[in-house]
Amino acid sequence: GEDVEQSLFLSVREGDSSVINCTYTDSSSTYLYWYKQEPGAGLQLLTYIFSNMDMKQDQRLTVLLNKKDKHLSLRIADTQTGDSAIYFCAESRQGGNTPLVFGKGTRLSVIA
Amino acid sequence: GAVVSQHPSRVICKSGTSVKIECRSLDFQATTMFWYRQFPKQSLMLMATSNEGSKATYEQGVEKDKFLINHASLTLSTLTVTSAHPEDSSFYICSASTGLAGGSRQFFGPGTRLTVL
Hints:
Chain A is mainly beta.
């Protein structure tokens, strides 16, 4: 079945880059997403990448996709204390009109 | 971007009572809505898929008689937790899709925290 794995914790110093990694098992995944969840809040879509892309950059965020290894990463440049949150990797087969399969989330702590 | 609201944002109820949670797409028509549940420090798990005007499709292990889903219009889906028990305490999040293929066209609500005493 579908499975998405992430490391549970990451701690970085303010100003450094953060890299959050994710692996998935479903080779049929066509869309891969990164969501941010702050304490007690819902999900905020940060970015997504289509499976035929290798990289996508949006301001401080860079997503890298290695489809062969089924590995996805999110790099946050110049990490700020406001970036402290849980980051979820998710995948879907057909995009927005199908349910997403989420990883357990990576808790990012930014040390000032 | 598209906005999805949920009401209430937080609810506390007694065991045995029923609780209704609303999910609304505020500025677009959602042909499909999804209901997820998130236990503390866990990921989101899909409970059911709801299409406007038809019965919801429930994931394995989710009791359809306990979690009643109604998607009566293109902008509103409701989840009713019937005869709630403490183990139903969780964070319930809905998402709405425009039905168009591709990309990020699924938008999440802010979630409803249910506490059953």
